[in-house]
Amino acid sequence: MDGVPSVAAWRHIDAREAFEVAFLSPSPSGLRIDGHTAAVEEGRPFAARYAIQLDRGWRTIRAHLWGRSPDGPQERRLEADGRGGWRVDGAPAPALDGLLDVDLEASALTNAFPVRRLAPAVGDAIDAPAVYVRALDLAVERLEQRYERLPDAPGDGERYAYAAPRFGTSCALTYAPDGLVADYPGLAERVL
What we know:
- With 192 residues, this protein is mainly β.
- The protein is 4% helix and 57% strand.
- The chain is built from one helix and 17 strands.
- The strands form two sheets. A 14-stranded antiparallel sheet has the order 8-7-6-5-4-3-2-1-17-16-15-14-13-10, covered by helices on one side. A three-stranded mixed sheet has the order 9-11-12, with no helix packed on it.
- The protein has one helix at residues 112-118; strands at 7-12, 17-27, 30-41, 44-55, 60-69, 72-80, 86-88, 91-92, 101-104, 125-127, 130-133, 140-143, 146-153, 157-164, 169-175, 181-184, 188-190.
């Protein structure tokens, strides 16, 4: 987990008014990430907190999520076996079979996981479906995603064409030299 910063922060823009801060703690077994997002989206406030454990290959091992919205508090526990099997709140989740990453709606950080794990070469495209967790109710679902490595822009870091067809999302993500998302057009920009 070389080069990973101890803290990173993003200002969420356009899609919601929000701020996200994550604390990253490398260890011999991988990386622990503790993060928080506070937001207002379409007039609805929410707060989300997450604790994610990744193995050394950037695969999600577990994620503990807490949320608060006008509908009340929510909590969700995800556990992965590292080979694509998942449990949600202790129960098997066969609809998530084959997935290796978690992607949080309230986080720009989680888009770094498949890119760091797979490290595609310029011109390579990768399908990286993920366990997607909604912000307001912590609902868990499968999300099809695709990343295509673009030529780097001088001084801008790595770039990827990103697509999540279900949401009609298609944009070019820019990653900082430390491998974390620097710019997610229409969603977030890194400030630290």
